[in-house]
Design brief:
- The protein is α/β, with parallel strands linked by helices and 111 residues long.
- It has a single domain (7-71, 91-104), classed as Rossmann fold (3-Layer(aba) Sandwich), CATH 3.40.50.
- It has 4 helices and 4 strands; from the N terminus they run E-H-E-H-E-H-E-H.
- A 4-stranded parallel sheet has the order 2-1-3-4, sandwiched between helices.
- Helix 1 links the parallel strand 1 (7-11) and strand 2 (37-39).
- It is globular and about 40 Å long.
Length: 111
């Protein structure tokens, strides 16, 4: 049985960012504290699959969410740019994490 909480997929740069897990975790925790149900692709194992497999798994996560939250560096990620396009195509709610933070009084970036 589903509840009334909004499901959100996190989109941001993973490849080439050695600190991606911390960045995604901070955003996930902040959104969860606000009541969102968050799907976070950074929880996937860092090795063991080809890039295309990671894209397929992430896409499946995105498809199951009502909204997509773009982390500040999403524009630097080919995968996140594709995820934004998919979200637009599917008519999902799309919001920027930093804008959401400012509006809801969340922690400042970089903390």
């Amino acid at each position: 049985m589903a509840d009334n909480k909004t499901t959100v997929y996190l989109a941001g740069k993973i490849t080439g960012d050695p600190n991606y897990r911390k960045k995604f975790e901070r955003a996930r925790k902040e959104l969860e504290r606000a009541g969102y149900i968050v799907l976070d692709p950074s929880i996937l194992p860092p090795t063991g699959f080809e890039y295309a497999a990671y894209i397929r798994m992430s896409t499946a996560m995105l498809y199951e969410c009502a909204a997509v939250c773009l982390l500040p560096d999403w524009i630097d990620s080919q995968g996140a740019m594709c995820e934004k396009w998919q979200a637009l195509t599917l008519g999902k709610i799309i919001f920027n994490f930093d804008d959401w933070r400012r509006k809801h009084g969340g922690e400042r970036s970089g903390e």
